[in-house]
Amino acid sequence: MGQFPPLNYRRNITIDALRGIALAIMAIDHLPHNAAGALFNAFGPIGFFSANTCFLFLSGIVSGFTYGAVNINRGAAALRDKAWRRAGEIYLVQMALFLVVAAAGTSSQAFRSQHVYFYHHPWFGTALGAVFLYQFQFLDILPLYCFFLFLAPFAIRQFQKRKSWSILVPSFFFWSAAQFGLPPMPPGVDGPLFFLNPFACQFVFFVGLYFGNRSHSGSSLAQPLHHSRVIIAVCALTAVAFFVLRMMVAFSHRLDLWEAWFAGPLAIQTQGALRLLNFAVWAYVVWRLREPLQKIVAKNPFGSWLAFVGQHSLQVFVWTVLFATCCSLFLPPHVSRLFARAETLLSLATLVIPAYIHFQYRHMWDFRKYPSVPLAGRT
Prior knowledge:
Helices cover 69% and strands 1% of the residues. By secondary structure, the chain is mostly helical. It has one domain. A two-stranded antiparallel ribbon has the order 1-2. A hairpin with a 2-residue loop joins strand 1 (187-188) and strand 2 (191-192).
């Protein structure tokens, strides 16, 4: 307990740090007065993919690793119980967040005008929210995780039976169909039902689930990939090319026409093909550098801070939504550049608050359940 932040080293802290980066980017993206809008918007700061793509993939990896081990060690029933219990926890968090945002929104005429139906029919609107047919801004992500975790036990069992094709082929088909608007997403009564298309996002999650589960399979596929200098060179050059183009889009208008032409393949809602290609090359480069990254995260205070935030991702995500919602509701729509920068820095600095509260709560709960186990043994 002498170190802060108190990391759980039984986890993969590199993945946790990457999740922390994704959460930090989402925290900035959600702000109404984004002081770095050129670098943090529908595209991320290093390419034409954003934090939601990273977070979907990393969540799939963590789920595959965690629940794959449960299926191997304890069987299918325990796998379903653990995954569905987690989905239930996320559902309860989603509903609590929904009610808090709905209550806070009563203080803002602008917010009520954006959600006319809900505030005219609050009980029925809440009932629709309970079945994910009505959402406020930023609240369509957690329902996606509920769906994905509900399906995860079946997918993991197919992966471990070496029938990965039965999951990945249909998943790819739904992603492909989503690129053409199929099946069409039904509209909500006050706007789009889902900002992120579930049929497209599921592909990112299930590919991550597949790779997370492979850590238990003993597959030799990773070896030739790991030692291929050609693949790493191609991916690194492609990542650099995408980065240069991203900076040109951010700070000049020379590529505006190009960006309009490729709006579909770069779309955030449907996780377009170029967006996923850009993410894939970066993901491979990071995977190849995972061992030195692990050392950097462990020894660097900022890396440890990111890993700590990433180890409490659900709580931190809820905080980002609440922080951004409060800024939208209680601050004027236009603020000075200095104020916007202060808001951005404050949003990042406070990410540690929900993480530390959850850390303390978990240790207090563990102490009540296992009072004879030393605190150091439960980190």
